[in-house]
Amino acid sequence: MKVSPDYYDEIFEYLGEWDMPSACGLKIRESEGKKYVIVTELYQDNPGTSVTYAGQKLADQICEAKGLNLADIVYVECNPNTNSKLSFYDEEYFVVDFNADPAHKYHQMEREEIMKLLGK
Q: pLDDT tens-digit profile of 85-95?
């Protein structure tokens, strides 16, 4: 399951759970006055913690490395399309609200919304 480089601008290396070396795809975009940080799961090319399980720890590391403030970004997790027959490998984007209760932490973005953000 290789992830197409169309999903990211760079590979971002981070420390996951138990400081396990990990990697994700990263895009940073601005749209309508908001800064979007899009992290993409790399599946077999990620040696450690997934972007979902790394959560705020990953967001904090990106903000520190890129000079961003967590309160000023929209953090988006991407599960890329891997052309699998299994539906849980379909392309999906989720906005993550680290301040929300667990039941409302993730909000799935509509395809049109993410395509507009990515300029497609």
A: 665 667 899 99
